[in-house]
Amino acid sequence: HSHFSVQSSSKHQVRFYFTSKFISSGFSFSASICFTLLLVAINKDMAETKEVVISGIAGRFPECNSTEEFKQKLYNNADLLTVDNRRWSPGMYGVPSRTGKLKEINKFDAEFFGIHTKLANAMDAQLRILLEVTHEAIVDAGINPKDIRGTKTGVYVGMMTNESSDYFERTPEKLTGYETIGVIRSMVANRISFQFNFKGPSVAIDTACSSALFCLHEAITAIKTGQCDAAIVAGTNLLLKPATSVMYHRYNMLSPTGTSRPFDIGANGYVRSEAIVALYIRKSTDAKRIYATIVGTSTNTDGFKIEGATYPSQSVQSQLIRETYARANLNFNDVHYIEAHGTGTGVGDKQELNAISDVFCIDRKSPLLVGSVKSNVGHAEPVSGLVSIAKVLYALETGIIPANINFETLNHNIPKLVSGELKVVDKQTPLPGNMASINSFGVGGTNVHLILKAHDKKMQTISLPTLEIPRLVFLSGRTREALIEQFETVENYADNNDLLTLINDIYKSKIPGYKFSGYSILGQTPRNVEIAQNNGSGDKRPIYFIFPGMGSQSLELVADLVKFKVFKQTVDNAHSILLPYNYSVHDLFYKSDENTFKSIKNTMFTVLIVQIGLVDILHSLGINPDGIIGHSVGELACAYADGCFTLEQALMTMYWRSTILTQIDVPAGAMVAVGLSWEETKKRLPEGIIVACHNSADSVTISGLKDITLNFTETLKQEGIFAKPVDSMGYAFHSPYLKGFVPSLKPYYEKVMSNPKPRSSRWLSTTYPEHQWNSPEAQYSSADYHLNNISSPVYFHGAMKHVPENAITIEIAPHCLLQAILKRSLPSTVTNIGLTKKTVSNHVNFLLEAIGKLYIAGAEPQLQNLYGKVEYPVVRGTPMISPMLKWDHTNDYVVPNFVDKKSGSEDDQVEIDINSQQDKYLIGHTIDGRILYPAAGYLTLVWKAFAKQQAKWFEDVPVVFQNIKFLRPTVLNTEGSMKFDINIFHGSGDFELLEGGSLTVSGRVKLLNQSTKENQIEHLATISEQMELNSDDFYKELRLRGYQYKDAFLGFVEANSEGSRGKVAWTGNWVSFIDTLLQFELISITTR
């Protein structure tokens, strides 16, 4: 045979073998077919390897604390824009009143992230929230965050403003230094990398409104080029600083009515909105959950445009879409829905839909559906692309596109809307196909286009087996209340194996920082839930298996425990091993009656097989002991748990032990539990009785001839000492009275243990006292060791002294009878858990509860080994996990408040520079050759400062000035700027205006009250209606008086002779307008 091999990128070896006959009959043709098939397979495999998917999502949206709440609001056609004073008073500075706002931005779980209060208060609120949202997105992907610490995970954060920095910088004297790492923009990404110990690229990016989707494009590129294996892609936007809105408003970007109406003829601008969203993306081959596959992304920039830098380019947008589809090897007809940028600006909507039409509306047989989530939430600016992704993911998951609300009359300026080739999704609409495109454009021209494809796995190919046991679920969280709520949610999905598999993968090991753990057995009435605070240290706790001996026998639980497949397999295997020896384990377990335990063989086998079955369950759960201690015959189970015995060796050891015991003559004996110390008991014992078991400091078991032992028991009782006979079935175990038993048993033991294995250090011997643990005879699980176990005392108390203070003990038996002894003899810091209790009615639930208690105590049972796990990725529609997570939001932290009033007076400083474009009009206010700052200017400055105190735009605040005193003039010059300090006292309204530290103007300002008499102005009596004075004559006269007014200050139009009636020009400048009104006073002054 000839052969060749090809190594594919996925590390799968592919070999072809050609026989000589095959080669001679046309190798070249056949081989070419094989090579073609091979290359197709390799290309497909490489493509799958490079596919990047959205695996987790979390976020805060306007009026929505989670992705699930946002989803419900979208499908309920909610308008999430509100009018309230959570950021600033509605209408302040004249900006539109409606915005989209997060519910709470002052809350943060600083303790979870190990962040000191000082740093938390100096940290950008965006970053605080983003830390929580990032954690949620990771968990939503089915990942325990600690499992990806140290990995090449990138962090890409899109953001525009960092207003917290501006806030802290206003008061340098109050800076703590923590602001250095709390508010600088780079730390928004770098802090996430630090907190989660991510080693991939970490950047904060600003491309304006396309920032977040640009981050997504960069992250995908990094993953495909090997710079990182996965990435957090996030965006943040909070509206803290009203000046930012004023800036956008003055640029005519915002809707003056505060309504978001994309594609509607009534669209008149966008509405600002907040959002903080994070995605967790990774390669499809690694994903446990896939919301969508990112089929393609591309980005470009408008470049120069004759219309201006912020004017959108139809041609560049359409070019971007074409390039994206070409790279993705897709046809434009493959996509039937576009989630548009759609901000609700007339120009933007028109340019975008025209660009979409240029690409998609050629030879299209059905209308292309378009929509914009901004109709619901407004424009979240740098985060808007991720908000759009959230909406599209809902559509891809459910097959229903949420409605584009506020759409009443289509924009007739957009031709394809009019023709019907584009259709706005104005009501919930089924999504045609399994893909959607998303546009995101930055105001400066940075454009991003994205294509998403739905996860096509709608059901598991292999179903999990139906089990007879209920489902046990583990959860952990920050607060008890959070866990209660989370368990209630999970209860609703008790049959959703995909979700439960994800949850198990997340919580199978502890999440550092989660203070509470709990378990729930689903489907129980009442609900079976237990929650407790975690072990404080967080250190791994050692686990000790404790095996009691005789007296723990019980068969009540067997019918329940065989519902556990592992346990049933152990029982069936034991049955097969012992059946050739004419012993039926099935008869023992399934046909028992009141006479069953009259047989020493039945009693011993019940104890051992149940112990081994329970050990097998624990092993299947990944619970392995750090220590093993057995009491009496319980040391046979120790040998099995330590790996020294196979199941067959353990059973045959017990078989011969119980068989030979019934074949020899031994005197009738008895055993009694006594509530005295080892030393005290020894002092009291009559001849014929020995101390057989040292159970604890104040508990022993005595063993001896029946009559003597029982008589001594009565004596102890009469003295008020606890004494209770143990059912040893007439045998005086661990006493000299079984001397004849040991030689008879020895050859059988030697045969079973012909090649004994060494005992590990985990197995603490109770057969030998501690000072003999290192002796040769104690080193192996040998015939001699186990024979000595029969005849020597049980040194249980000595072994128990070695149980660490932070241990978890697990008592393993048909009935746990050592719990009282364990509780008394071990420190209170030890957690003691019994797996069984013969008095309970439901043994399955009791065992599941015990496993749950192990989880709470700090062990990590692997439930997937009990219930199985679905094949990843989970199916489409698997419920989101991020909305289930809740935080400890007990404490509030600083949120910048740019409009907060202070007590006493408030200072406001204004800088005037006549060289600036804003202030150069003041040159027109020249008197006697000097440029003087106008009296009207002083009044306007005070008016604006007073309105600012009211958190309103000054034009919306009518005021009255009283007791004005102009104390000194202010001369302006071109060599530098001038600064005025305005100080207004709250309550009185008294104000002072200072220039260079000198008082310049004083007076009182207050709100106008229309009904107050003192506000009535005494007008001059009108003598003449004739407008005798025109502008030219008026200003000619003023120039003769030294007033060289120019430009803006030439606002006088006409007046009557006494100046009681007239007209002035309004140019939009309050200073020159008021100054012109004051000029009327000069008419009545006849002297020059």
UniProtKB/TrEMBL annotation:
Superkingdom of source: Eukaryota
Location of region: C-terminal hotdog fold: 1025-1088
Active site: 925 (proton acceptor), 1075 (proton donor)
InterPro entries (UniProt xref): Ac_transferase_dom_sf, Acyl_transferase_dom, Acyl_Trfase/lysoPLipase, Ketoacyl_synth_AS, Ketoacyl_synth_C, Ketoacyl_synth_N, Malonyl_transacylase_ACP-bd, PKS_assoc
Pfam families listed in its UniProt record: Acyl_transf_1, KAsynt_C_assoc, ketoacyl-synt, Ketoacyl-synt_C, PKS_DH_N
Reaction equation(s) it catalyzes: acetyl-CoA + n malonyl-CoA + 2n NADPH + 2n H(+) = a long-chain fatty acid + (n+1) CoA + n CO2 + 2n NADP(+)
Ketosynthase family 3 (KS3) domain sequence ranges: 49-454
GO biological process: fatty acid biosynthetic process
The PKS/mFAS DH domain, residue ranges: 891-1088
Gene Ontology molecular function terms on file: 3-oxoacyl-[acyl-carrier-protein] synthase activity; fatty acid synthase activity; hydrolase activity; oxidoreductase activity
EC number(s) per entry: 2.3.1.85
Sequence intervals crossing the membrane: 21-42
SUPFAM superfamilies named among the record's database cross-references: FabD/lysophospholipase-like, Probable ACP-binding domain of malonyl-CoA ACP transacylase, Thiolase-like
Key words of the record: Fatty acid biosynthesis, Fatty acid metabolism, Hydrolase, Lipid biosynthesis, Lipid metabolism, Membrane, Multifunctional enzyme, NAD, NADP, Oxidoreductase, Phosphopantetheine, Phosphoprotein, Transferase, Transmembrane, Transmembrane helix
Region (N-terminal hotdog fold): 891-1012
Listed name of the protein: Fatty acid synthase
UniProt source species: Schizaphis graminum
